[in-house]
Design brief:
2 domains; single chain; Flavocytochrome C3, Chain A, domain 1; six-stranded mixed beta sheet; binds flavin-adenine dinucleotide; 14 helices; 27% helix; eight-stranded mixed beta sheet
């Protein structure tokens, strides 16, 4: 059996694991990163993200500052029916909180405050280490609203992986690739290392303080169904990196009675085209068409209001349909609309399925043709003020409240409340749509120093967690914060674990 020793052992080499490793090395620690993937696939979800960050952005912006949406969104999504007495306690210093507060199911202000404070210094630290971010550049996302300009890391998450990995190695950091951590080693209540399996299932023990930066469990179908219910069987990771995150980091900490946090039944989802393995293969154009299921029935109001208010609704609704699949149908009127930048919402590399009639389209989709024809006819008849349809500009911008056109249906259920124009101009087109998983919301409870606490609110000595491994989402994900939290809490963990007791 092989053994390795370092001051700090980090499980995972995504945003959280790499930022942790570099900060720990700079603080004088020795580090080993354990990474399940081979070197050319390292980096989990981080490798595939565009790394949009919820920062103030635009021509006048100088430094790094969180967008106001940060507090608003976390405030709205802080937890479900939080006990007001427990919440009231959190105005005092964290040391004075009761064990109930330290383990309660909510986004605690200690954690959120620590996150917010870390953003500017962490991003400055990264830019000094070769990561390029320009707050003056801001990009709206397909399906994100214009009032949230996102600031991107140039080169996305891959740039984080490719910039930080060589720096870590130059400073003596070691990577154990194709090695999977599966059990924490504990002595008298203190975590002193982690047991791993390598090639040929060889057991490897790596000793040191342990930082779990191993993502969520989006790559583990068994855990997804166990915690989220049977519709989760249809979920597919939105990018290849998610397959590597199988939840061992969470399981081994829970075995030591770590406190759980975040909504374990929920996850951040996106609608993608199942015909391609491309990351984030979206075709986010259903507000301009209709969405039907395999039975040929509509099942959702395709354009109710600003997308930000219901971004998770379509993927959740699709998972509830037979076979977990849906079809976005539109016609030549949209396809030939040159004034409207509707293709902005399309990222799939597959062309739409095309047919000269609705019945022919149905046959290609294996939907009963008569039923699809009936659904489209009913929808067309219900479009009562199609002359008001106003497409144009960037799709994302149009979906801001106030940019909606109010062209609606009458007398059908579900209604379509905006952009309701008849689908009657052949040829007809369709993008298939499934729900994909970006990351899971369930994770571990940590304090503001990234130390994992147990179910009684006590710190588990020698154990830290950062990034997706920490549970801090209830309800809607605060978009543009997941890369940031990985970078910030990874660095916090690396610095804190490097302190000599
Ligand atoms: C396509 C896509 C687009 C996204 N867009 C955005 C965006 O614009 N903005 C944003 O903020 N977020 C975005 N996200 C989410 C964000 O990228 C991730 O949540 C974040 O990067 C996660 O960082 P992490 O370090 O916590 O986990 P990861 O980057 O997933 O790293 C986890 C690492 O742990 C390794 N690992 C897992 N289990 C083990 C084990 N048992 N032993 C050893 N190694 C293990 C994995 O191989 C992986 O390298 C996106 C994600 C995807 C996939």
């Amino acid at each position: 059996m092989k053994q390795h020793h370092a001051d700090i052992v980090i499980v995972g080499a995504g945003a959280a694991g790499l930022s942790c490793a570099l900060s720990a090395l700079e603080a004088g620690s020795t580090v080993i990163n354990i990474e399940r993937a081979p070197r050319d696939m390292m980096g989990g979800n981080t490798r595939w993200t565009e790394a949009n960050m919820l920062l103030k952005g635009g021509p006048d912006q100088e430094g790094f500052e969180l967008n106001d949406m940060f507090y608003m969104s976390y405030g709205i999504n802080k937890g479900f029916h939080v006990d007001p007495d427990i919440e009231a306690e959190t105005v005092s210093d964290y040391e004075n909180w009761s064990q109930l507060a330290k383990t309660a199911q909510f986004v605690d202000p200690e954690l959120l405050g620590s996150f917010a404070e870390a953003v500017a210094p962490t991003l400055e630290w990264l830019t000094e280490r070769g990561i390029k971010i320009d707050p003056k550049q801001a990009a709206p996302l397909p399906f994100c609203i214009e009032s949230i300009p996102y600031v991107q890391i140039y080169g996305g998450g891959l740039a984080i992986v490719e910039s930080l990995t060589p720096r870590i190695e130059e400073k003596g950091g070691q990577f154990l690739f194709e090695t999977t951590a599966n059990k924490l080693i504990e002595e008298n209540g203190t975590v002193v290392g982690v047991r791993c399996s390598g090639k040929d299932n060889e057991t490897i023990q790596v000793y040191g303080k342990v930082v779990l930066a191993s993502g969520g469990f989006e790559g583990n179908p068994q855990m997804l169904v166990q915690y989220g219910g049977k519709n989760n069987r249809y979920l597919r990771p939105v990018a290849k990196g998610g397959h590597y995150n199988k939840g061992e980091g969470l399981r081994m900490a829970l075995e030591l009675n770590a406190a759980a946090a975040g909504d374990w039944s929920d996850c951040h989802q996106q609608v993608v085209d199942p015909r391609t393995g491309l990351q984030e293969a979206m075709a986010n154009i259903w507000p301009y068409g209709v969405m039907v299921n395999q039975r040929g029935e509509r099942f959702i109001n395709e354009a109710p209001n600003a997308i930000f208010e219901w971004q998770e609704a379509p993927p959740e609704a699709i998972m509830e349909q037979p076979g977990g699949i849906a079809y976005t149908i539109y016609d030549e009127k949209l396809a030939s609309d040159k004034d409207c930048n509707w293709k902005y919402g399309i990222r799939t590399d597959k062309p739409p399925i095309k047919a000269d009639s609705i019945e022919e389209l149905a046959a290609q989709l294996m939907i009963p043709p008569a039923k699809l024809k009936q659904t489209i006819n009913e929808y067309n008849r219900a479009c009562v003020n199609a002359d008001k349809v106003k497409r144009g500009g960037v799709l994302g911008e149009l979906l801001v409240k106030g940019h909606l056109d109010g062209a609606t249906t009458e007398g059908i259920n579900p209604p379509k409340e905006n952009f309701a124009a008849p689908i009657d101009s052949p040829p007809y087109y369709c993008y298939p749509a499934i729900s994909s998983i970006c990351f899971t919301h369930g994770g571990l409870r940590t304090n503001g120093q990234a130390q994992v606490v147990n179910a009684s609110g006590e710190v588990i000595p020698g154990l830290y967690a950062a990034g997706e491994t920490v549970g801090m989402h209830y309800g809607n994900y605060t978009v543009g914060t997941s890369v940031l939290r990985g970078l910030c809490f990874g660095r916090i963990a690396g610095q804190h674990a490097s302190k000599k007791e």
